[in-house]
Amino acid sequence: MPTITNLEDLRVLYEARVPRMFYDYTESGSWTEQTFRENTSDFARIRLRQRVAVDMENRSTAGAMVGEKVAMPVGLSSVGLTGMQNADGEIKAARAAEKFGVPYTLSTMSVCSVEDVAEHTTKPFWFQLYVMRDREFTSRLLRRVRDAGCSVLVLTLDLQILGQRHKDIKNGLNVPFRPTLRNIANLMTKWRWMAGMAATRRRTFGNIVGHIDGVTDTGSLTAWATNSFDPRLDWNRVGEIKEEWGGKMILKGILDPEDASRAAEVGVDALVVSNHGGRQLDGALSSIRALPAIRRAVGDAVELHIDGGIRSGQDVLKSLAMGADGAMIGRGYIYGLGAMGEAGVTKALNLIQRELDVSMALCGKTRIEDLNRDAILVPEGFEGRWE
């Protein structure tokens, strides 16, 4: 086993152990992948402000996200097909998050169902909702999520239609999967992954198959999935879902200050500044570059989380210093899951917390609530001047 010191080490191991089609599904964006790349590279433009002669004892990364105490203000974001990165992947990721003390978000497009994850965890987790054309399905799903004890609903706003991801098309990553000959050959070399998948019964979309009339397997799922996302999703529909859910709710996919102001008026518990990991509108701003204007737009009226490009504890620090209340990681924990299963997710979280803790201390900060612009150096014109 190689020595793992950062998330990049996990990514390298992940690439070696997971089939190429599922690695590409995670490590890619839409069209030219400009936004996917800048989500990460824009973090590197921000510098940390070193401070000295500060009492660094009794440090803590503990905080809160939507009223829930957390070991650090970092949550595991929803990632579709997590159970294809590692057998029963959603269950493993949720267990790791629970033990560590951070929230886990289950995707609508998960392999393990919401009932599966609830059965294998002891504390409430979050659930991410895609709004479908079939309103009865959405209502039934919300009831199932409520029955499973989920504490927060994360409503995704930026996937009414799918952005084109070239690598997925070339790899034949459709529903059902139609891998190319090249990918079939690659699958046969991933013996560890193959053994895990052979040992589980969970290999399809657990929240969908068997819960819609006529959709009983991946084959019958094809016709339903082709045009399932609801392009009519608007603020009125958001309000209806909020009322139907009746609990804590987060709106994910906010990248524009005007949308942020409108979202805050809905009265939700938090917003997630996000461009869907660069997988939807290519050419959009990176999440970290968009964050300050959104914070100015909403003030302190609503909690702000951010996702996209976070690959270290220093990225978390920079996010919080730039105005976020919490950070969500997707690819970062998927690297660990694909590389080492549940232990890999725990490893990813430990790496992030350790780097966050040390970097905070060297910036002269000992508490999460102390992080602000005083801890960082932001280059002139970082947000850009756009006509």
Largest sheet: 8 strands, parallel
Total strands: 12
Structural class: alpha/beta
Strand content: 5-15%
Parts with pLDDT < 50 across at least 5 consecutive residues = none
CATH architecture: Alpha-Beta Barrel
Q: Could you state the CATH homologous superfamily?
A: Aldolase class I
Cα end-to-end separation: 51 Å
Sheet with most strands: strand arrangement = 4-11-10-9-8-7-6-5
- What gyration radius follows from the Cα positions, in whole Å? 20 Å
**Which overall shape is indicated by the principal axes computed on the Cα atoms?**
globular
Can you tell me the number of structural domains? 1
Determine the fraction of residues in helical runs and give it as a percent range.
40-55%
Quote the average pLDDT: 94
What's the CATH class, please?
Alpha Beta
Could you say what the CATH topology is called? TIM Barrel
Q: Give the topology string: H per helix, E per strand.
A: HHHEEEEHEHEHEHHHHHEHEHEHEHHE
Number of helical stretches of at least 4 residues? 16
